[in-house]
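# step 3/5: fold
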Amino acid sequence: MKLDNLIQGRLVKRYKRFLADIVLDNGEAVTVHCPNTGSMKNCADAGSKVWVLDSKNEKRKYPLGWELVEVQGQYLACINTGRANKLVKEAIENGTIQPLQGYASMRQEVKYGENSRIDLLLEDSDKGRVWIEVKNVTLLEEANCGRFPDAVTARGAKHLRELMAMVAQGDRAVMLFCVPHTGINTVSPADQIDPEYGRLLREAKAAGVEVMAYGAEISETAISLVRELTVVLD
């Protein structure tokens, strides 16, 4: 996935969930859209190097959107959660995600469960269906471990229950962690933040939901999922 014409700056602060103040490298102070509803723990430290994308849409109140942040002065992370589904779709199509190959069709945002929409649905007349829920992981903690979620998520818990219901009816179901963070090598539930999500994730795996994680290669011009990561649930 290409990232065209990113503009570099330094983060002043992130606030009101959807806004951030940034000083661009040319010295201009701007307010940009923050496309991330989570806490962004460890990804929103004042003074961090950031990259924003110019939508070139003059009708938008905030035409600049925050895309990347440098974490701990050495790693790159994509904080735009809207890219996660597209990254996973691309990785399925190019063969990176091997366990999800061989299906005839792929659809997005299909209604299912408790008034929800699944992120991706694979279908094949011989292989059946695979319901794929995608979550974005950017919380880096000790030993290069990525944690999810970075805030309590009742919605995420509901999605796990829905995936278990799909397995119960005979379909495949996958909880897929998209990890656009170059410092993360393993993924685990953030039990200290949301113990209920961690409990449900382990229950879902025991019930037959497949749990996967894929890490990204990131530069100032492109991002793509390139490697499978270990998911640790012990």
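# step 4/5: annotate
The chain has a mean pLDDT of 96.
# step 5/5: archive (pending)
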